[in-house]
Amino acid sequence: MDETVVDTTYWHRTEDGRVQCDVCPRHCRLREGQRGLCYVRQCLDDQIRLVSYGRSSGFCVDPIEKKPLNHFYPGSSVLSFGTAGCNLACKFCQNWDMSKSREMDTLADRASPERLADAAVELACQSIAFTYNDPIIFLEYAMDVAAACREQGVKSVAVTAGYVDPEPRAAFFGAMDAANVDLKAFTERFYNKICGGHLAPVLETLEFIRHETDTWLELTTLLIPGENDSDEEIDEMTGWVVEHLGPDVPMHFTAFHPDWKMRDVGPTPAATLSRARRIAMGNGVHFAYTGNVHDAEGGSTWCPSCGELLIERDWYRLGRWAVDGHGCCSRCGHAVPGRFGAAPGQFGARRIPVRLDLSR
Fold first, then answer.
1. What is the pLDDT of residues 36-61, one digit of tens each?
2. pLDDT value, residue 99
């Protein structure tokens, strides 16, 4: 069998003779040869197999803040890659050329988990990120990469929508050091109409990560004018986060730009992001950020106890640093939640596409 096709665990046979994938709440029921909505999980030989193992749509070295993660080794670099396909159908997808791809030719690069771990070390990356499309759909590959990275001292980061069933959820996030979960909105209408999914499984994933794992968690919401940007929805969302996840989970409010199947909607005004940040902080969120806009105040980290500027950010460049070697505010001693080194990284705002030497 092709080495990019591997057996999987989360599936079962149904009474009507089909095979059901049990990775995500979509529960695709497939007959021989059929693929799930995600495109990379296929019924072959009367079982579900992953057909994109070890294949990538490309590699890039990014600042960790681009994921976005502001409390996970700030200033460090991360080796980013994705595959093809997705288990949601978001009309606004801003990586649609990869996540909506139905061409295996998109997956031009191949790399074993061990080669990826070696590459992260060679490129001086503190972590590796599964991003561009959702790693839930290629979880076997992602988990193997995470295991290889752990042996090399490299951290693993999942950038995901969190749309996953309980059993694979436990295995997947148990292998990750950090996750940024895309909380796309706070209404079932939005998830159903715009994303082709449901809200409840995502909320369950967030509570699981926060309370049942050691995985560092941050949230991102892309605010789309007229769809998920009302005061009422942002108030309800941020209130839920504080009540169910706690005030120390960072929230990122980022700007939409017209793309994929929502080109008729205008870009998000910067004022909308600032308004969302104010609502979040008013509800008790300690660390609320704006993203995809130039907003030094909204992008920086401030001490929730004394108001000190802890980590100054100008886009992805760090300035003032007032977090001591113990991860506390250097002024008042308040413990800053997250994962911090003794000093900030110095990678800056670079984005470096890379081609790996796959002959090794």
1. 999 999 999 999 999 999 988 789 99
2. 46
Counting every residue written for the chain, the total comes to 360
How far apart CA 321 and CA 330 sit, in angstroms, is 9
Tell me the C-alpha distance between 17 and 39, whole Å.
21
pLDDT in tens, 156-183: 999 999 999 999 999 999 999 999 999 9
Cβ atoms 320, 297 nearer than 8 A: no
- Residues 21, 41 contacting (CB under 8 angstroms): yes
Q: Helices 200-212 & 166-174, crossing angle to 10 degrees? A: 40
User: Which residues partner with 253 through β-bridges?
Assistant: 221, 290
Cis amide linkage into residue 68, ω under 30° from 0: yes
What 8-state DSSP symbol labels residue 42? E
Q: Is the dihedral of CA 46, 48, 49, 52 positive or negative?
A: positive
Q: Provide the edge-to-edge strand list for the sheet that holds 317-321.
A: 301-302, 309-314, 317-321
- What domains does the chain contain, in order, with CATH numbers? 6-50 (no CATH), 55-354 (3.20.20.70)
Whether 259 contacts 307, CB under 8 Å: no
Q: Is the pTM here over 0.85, yes or no?
A: yes
Cα separations in angstroms, 27 against 30, 126, 135, 165: 9, 35, 17, 9
Parallel, antiparallel, or unpaired for β 288-291 and 251-255?
A: parallel
Query: Would you say residue 98 has pLDDT above 90?
Result: no
CA–CA dist 78, 65 (Å, integer):
9
